[in-house]
Design goal:
Among the domains are: 3-76 and 222-262, 2-Layer Sandwich (Nucleotidyltransferase, domain 5); 81-202, no CATH class; 490-602, Dna Ligase, domain 1 (2-Layer Sandwich). The chain is 31% helix and 27% strand. The protein contains 17 helices and 35 strands. The strands form 9 sheets. Strands 13, 14, 15, 20, 23, 24, 31, 34 and 35 form a 9-stranded mixed beta sheet that branches. A 6-stranded mixed beta sheet has the order 3-2-1-4-11-12. The radius of gyration is 26 Å and the shape is globular. The model is unreliable at 694-704 (pLDDT under 50).
């Protein structure tokens, strides 16, 4: 039997989804080990091996592919524990990086400061060189200055060097020569040059992305090198792939070189999984939300296409590479509840994490969390958390909620727990509003695809607040992102800037730039083991009205050649897209081209999820008991069902609780549930029609 494994390292748990060639899948989890994430990975692999009756060596020897999402780069950015980095730029422009855009992130807070500089001014060096906007050399590179800078960086124990010159995306010769010199002086240094990382117009964004790539590159490279060696010594001889922020995967070698592409490595798999599960029921417009132990990640998918942005920030640092637009708030199961100095209840953003974790974990945690509140409200079974592997301490949860929340607010413990639960739900609903309402979209027109171990506990009240009537909870909900990783293709994004008025586009130059990107893409994907027939290329352009600052990406080019017909289609598409995004368009107004983009995709073999045999409408065989749970203004004794015994066609009327070993679904009185043909749970608001999901024909794309 051969296996494929998706691994998502989260803030609290490390998730594993293991599939085999028969379409069967199994879920495994281990606690994340923040000091050494690889330890938690191998502990989980050992648990998975045991689940299949194998030792670790035998299990890995039969594993063909591991797709891994990592938080190494995100954590390094947020905690300030990246590499000691030096930066080389054009003389006369030393302070562009740390001046940023000169705008305060919170413009109404006079005390608001930008995040600490990744590279202090003392390690920003300037050298004489200058290229104009057409790539002509105005001032030759002063190589003696580069040698001197490299020697000073070596003496200063610099680990990584970022190089970004003005207009280098048009002519990268100076950057490349500077990198050669630095490499000779510092052969072990991690070198990042902007003409490779982001050959795109806008100097601050290019500087910031290139420096961030250098800052987080060494810790990621060390981790991946160590992981590859450990897997090989344990018997793994298959393919290891790393999840990217753009929704694709790449080889460890490419990940080490372009570390900035992994900043949302884990959460980026969520929308990919959401598209797969949504298509089972014909839902092309979905909102995915992943509620884990630390954070709540939410993204919007429209017409089966996730939103991509090149204007992201991580920890306050600007990143201009294409990334799935995922909004994250600190409102997870481990989010700490407290009463502030003004007597106001707060939940999050700080989390108890995996160590010590919520108080109910019994690992020494002394702060009340959302999970503690869930336990006190009856949503969690203290003896069945993670299938009984973890026994929850109800007394500890009661004690910390009473001492830290109930007593300061003058409430009883149940009311305090309900307040924590409701406030966490409000934060999560607001996050969904950011990706929908703020974009002029009505969340009621979207299905909510819910993931994460804690997501299904909170989904129904969130949906009620937003007026969403359809909720889809995948059977693999607790390892949702791990599932998305197995559904992802290899994917690389390329960009070349060509600012020009639309009616003055040089067709030959455009063709040459696309050909350059195509050659680079084909070389990269073939080096990653992708056959030419499995490679697909997508072309796009960034356009804007003359006088605007921000451009709009327009998809739809094929073959990388622009003729008059293609130009007309691009222009029409730009006006339509501008109207969708901003509520207006100006046909007839002058337009300019800014960037040419190419997305190269190497199609991978997808896991085939097995359809289940239909059951009867009566779900009594899955009933495991009854217990009190808090709904509305008091406790109700509700039916508790064993989720893994529910079969396609089984229907449940809320209120009820459905338990799986790694997640719990709280069905409020406003919803009914039906189990679909893959064992997923479809919640419909009462009064809304529910289709016969057990009888729906499978779509081809969901089974390959």
């Amino acid at each position: 039997m051969k296996f494929r494994i998706g691994i998502d390292v989260g803030g609290t748990f490390t998730d594993f989804l293991v599939t085999n060639e028969d379409g069967q899948s199994h879920i495994f989890k281990s606690l994340t080990t923040p000091r050494d994430p690889a330890q938690g990975v191998f502990e989980g692999l050992a648990v998975a091996a045991k689940g299949y009756g194998l030792d670790l060596a035998g299990f890995l020897a039969n594993t063909t592919t591991i797709v891994h999402g990592t938080t190494i780069t995100t954590n390094a950015t947020l905690t300030g524990r990246g590499a000691r980095t030096g930066f080389i730029t054009t003389r006369g422009f030393r302070d562009i990086l740390n001046m940023r855009r000169g705008l305060r992130a919170n413009q109404y807070e006079s005390k608001s400061s930008p995040p600490p500089a990744l590279v202090p001014r003392s390690r920003i060096a300037v050298v004489s060189e200058r290229v104009d906007l057409n790539g002509n050399v105005l001032v030759p590179l002063n190589e003696d200055e580069v040698w001197e800078v490299a020697r000073s960086f070596k003496a200063g124990a610099v680990e990584a060097v970022a190089i970004s010159f003005l207009w280098s995306f048009v002519n990268p010769a100076h950057e490349r020569r500077a990198a050669e010199i630095v490499s000779e002086v510092m052969p072990n240094a991690y070198i990042s040059i902007s003409s490779e990382v982001l050959p795109e117009i806008r100097v601050y964004e290019r500087h910031s992305t290139t420096v961030l790539n250098a800052y987080i590159g060494p810790p990621l490279a060390r981790y991946l090198d160590s992981l590859e060696k450990a897997l090989a010594s344990a018997g793994f001889g298959g393919i290891l792939l790393i999840m990217q922020s753009n929704g694709g995967v790449m080889s460890p070698q490419m990940a080490s070189r372009f570390a900035v592409n992994t900043l949302l490595s884990g959460p980026a798999a969520g929308p990919i999984a959401g598209i797969h599960y949504g298509k089972i029921h014909g839902y092309d417009n979905i909102i995915t939300c992943d509620l884990g132990g630390t954070s709540f990640d939410v993204s919007l998918v429209r017409n089966s296409t996730p939103v991509v942005t090149t204007e992201s920030e991580v920890g306050g640092y600007h990143v201009a590479v294409p990334m799935l637009d995922i909004h994250t708030v600190g409102a997870g199961g481990g989010s700490i509840a407290r009463v502030d100095a003004g007597g106001i209840l707060r939940v999050g953003p700080h989390s108890a994490g995996a160590d010590p974790g919520p108080a109910c974990y019994g690992n020494g945690g002394d702060q009340p969390t959302t999970t503690d509140a869930d336990l006190l409200l009856g949503y969690l079974d203290p003896d069945y958390f993670h299938g009984g592997r973890i026994k929850l301490d109800t007394e500890a949860a009661h004690r910390v909620v009473k001492e830290r929340v109930a007593d300061p607010l003058g409430l009883d413990v149940t009311a305090a727990a309900d307040a924590i639960y409701r406030l966490a739900n409000a934060h999560q609903a607001a996050a969904i509003g950011v990706v929908s309402v703020r974009r002029g979209l009505d969340p009621r027109e979207f299905a909510l695809v819910v993931a994460g171990g804690a997501g299904p506990i909170h989904a129904a009240p969130i949906a009620e607040e937003l007026g969403i009537t359809t909720i889809l909870v995948p059977r693999e909900s607790s390892v949702f992102c791990a599932a998305g990783m197995l559904l992802s293709d290899l994917k690389h994004d390329y960009v070349r800037s060509y600012p020009v008025e639309f009616d003055k586009i040089d067709m030959v130059r455009v063709d040459n730039l696309y050909l350059e990107m195509k050659r680079q893409a084909m070389t990269t994907l073939k080096a990653e083991g992708i056959a030419e027939g499995a490679i697909s290329l997508g072309y796009a352009v960034d356009l804007r009205y003359v006088g605007q600052f921000n451009e709009v990406e327009v998809q739809g080019l094929h073959g990388g050649r622009i003729d008059r017909e293609a130009l007309g289609k691009m222009l029409d598409g730009f006006h339509r897209r501008h109207d969708e995004l901003f509520g207006y368009s100006m046909p007839g107004a002058p337009v300019e081209l800014i960037n040419l983009r190419l997305t190269a995709r190497g199609v991978t073999k997808k896991p085939r999820f097995e359809e289940m045999k239909a059951g009867q409408a009566d779900s009594a065989a899955a009933l495991k008991g009854r217990r009190p749970a808090y709904f509305g203004n008091g406790f109700l004794t509700v039916d508790v069902f064993e989720g893994l015994k529910l079969l396609p066609g089984h229907r449940i009327s809320g209120p009820a609780i459905i338990e799986q070993p790694t997640t719990t679904i709280v069905v409020t009185p406003a919803f009914n549930v039906v189990c679909d043909r893959y064992g997923n749970y479809l919640l419909h608001a009462k009064g809304e029609p529910a289709s016969d999901v057990a009888a729906e024909p499978a779509r081809k794309e969901t089974t390959q």
